[in-house]
Design goal:
Number of strands: 8
CATH class of the largest domain: Alpha Beta
Helix content: 40-55%
Order of helices and strands: EHEHEHEHEHEEHEHHHHHHH
Enzyme class: oxidoreductase
Strand content: 5-15%
Radius of gyration: 22 Å
Subunit structure: Homodimer.
CATH architecture of the largest domain: 3-Layer(aba) Sandwich
Largest sheet: 8 strands, mixed
CATH superfamily of the largest domain: NAD(P)-binding Rossmann-like Domain
Protein name: L-carnitine dehydrogenase
Number of helices: 13
Domain 3-hydroxyacyl-CoA dehydrogenase C-terminal: 201-270
GO molecular function: carnitine 3-dehydrogenase activity; NAD+ binding
Structural class: alpha/beta
CATH topology of the largest domain: Rossmann fold
Length: 337
């Protein structure tokens, strides 16, 4: 098998991530429209294009519906729905754009063709990011002359509320393009995971897909209802996951011994028939990697520190969602008065 073609150096971006003023959103469905709303709320000028005949009306309705939530979160200076321009063509949308966010449907050939068109039309050096939820960029950038500037910028729905964006390049993507995109998303108010390798489905989708599959198994086998499944998360581990992820959460299950004690105690249950997913072999390398990863994530905080942080966070979530006795839900970003 021939070795992958090394990345081509990316042309210099037209400006620094901090200096971007105009963003193009290509594809104006739920994800693309959510991106447009987010960028508008952050004070950018947004040009958008979608081939659907009713694209402009749908996009403006989506942005208008999102705006009250964005106002509660806090708008950037100068943010306005009036800064949205919907164009009649792709080329017009990306002309003068300093960043391009592609959010077309999840069809590989469509993505390939569209990214090639964007590469031909966008200003030299402008980074082009795909909102794909599963395709590796290596598979999408095939045949695109400017593949070095193509990255994945995978958001979560709705992009105007959920902070996470996973950024990763393909085999032909220049590292500088990945670095530029990651910094731009941070400036634009996102929480960024910059992946150092391609993984189909990326990180968060693989985790939620595992949960989704098991939920479907339980429904199909009559083992749990949809209501029970949803409640099992919103009233259970979802409260903890809002504060810290599954790895540190499980580390706390080990008490003062942390993840090492948890793996010693519960490791054998990985082979129990609790799920339909095949568990990895808990060999020494995996054991040590998980323990070390939790130590790194704890960043010097003791188990007691983490327990206190988790408890405070869960109480905040309960209070914010009106689940504490006598509590009422408050708008996001507003302090109770």
């Amino acid at each position: 098998m021939p070795s992958p073609t090394p990345p081509v150096p990316a042309p210099c971006a037209p400006c620094a991530p901090e200096d971007v003023r105009r963003v193009a959103c290509v594809g104006a469905g739920v994800i693309g429209g959510g991106w447009a709303a987010h960028f508008l709320a952050r004070g950018y000028d947004v040009t958008a294009w979608d081939p659907a005949p009713d694209a402009e009306a749908r996009l403006r309705r989506l942005v208008a519906a999102a705006w009250p939530a964005l106002e509660r979160l806090g708008l950037a200076e100068g943010a306005s729905q009036d800064r949205l321009t919907v164009t009649g063509g792709l080329e017009e949308a990306v002309a003068g754009a300093e960043f391009v966010q592609e959010s077309a449907p999840e069809k590989l050939e469509l993505k390939r063709d569209l990214l090639a068109r964007l590469d031909a039309a966008a200003p030299a050096g402008t980074v082009i990011a795909s909102s794909t939820s599963g395709y590796p960029m290596t598979d999408m950038q095939t045949g695109t002359p400017g593949a070095a500037r193509l990255v994945v910028g995978h958001p979560f729905n709705p992009p105007y509320l959920i902070p996470l964006v996973e950024v990763v390049g393909g085999e032909l993507t220049a590292p500088a393009a990945v670095e530029w995109a990651s910094r731009f998303y941070e400036v634009a108010g996102k929480s960024v995971i910059t992946m150092d390798r391609e993984v189909p489905g990326f990180i968060a989708n693989r985790l939620q897909e595992a949960l989704w599959r098991e939920a479907l198994h339980m429904v199909a086998n009559g083992e749990a209802t949809v209501r029970e499944i949803d409640a099992s998360i919103t009233e259970g581990p979802g409260l903890r996951w809002a504060v810290m992820g599954p790895m540190l959460t499980f580390a706390l299950a080990g008490g003062e011994g942390g993840m090492a004690h948890m793996l010693d105690h519960f490791g054998p249950s990985l082979k129990s028939p609790w799920t339909r997913l095949e568990a990895p072999e808990l060999d020494r390398a995996l054991y040590e990697a998980v323990v070390a990863g939790c130590d790194e994530a704890a960043a010097g905080r003791t188990i007691a520190d983490l327990v206190a942080e988790r408890d405070r966070g869960v109480i905040d979530v309960l209070r914010a969602t009106g689940r504490l006795p006598g509590a009422t839900a408050t708008a996001t970003g507003e302090a109770a008065r």
